[in-house]
Amino acid sequence: METWLRERVLQRYIIENKSKFKPFGMKILNIRDNKDKYPDLYCTLENGKEVPAEVEWKSSNFVQHGHDISELKENQGFVLVCEKDQDLGFEIPQIQIEISDFEKWFTENSLRIIQDTTK
Question: What is this structure's pTM?
């Protein structure tokens, strides 16, 4: 798969649509953006705990990027992916991003994204 959009756009989708994801069965109350540094996001869950989250197009990208899995494991973090193409181990949950919803969001927000980029 050739990547035409940077992962940063996918991160923005997660930030703007946090209510669509329920890691560990809990609502995400707030997301702190780590500005495209590992881990990508810090999510405050409804139990008050802040946990790290990494956003990837595919599970295998997490491994290819050489991310330190212990960061997520030790802090009860998770990975958000469009395609689960590799197991990351039992300790690291993968939450699937609904591609059709991302596509709809991108279509509706692409002008705003472009304008934010070219400011």
Answer: 0.92
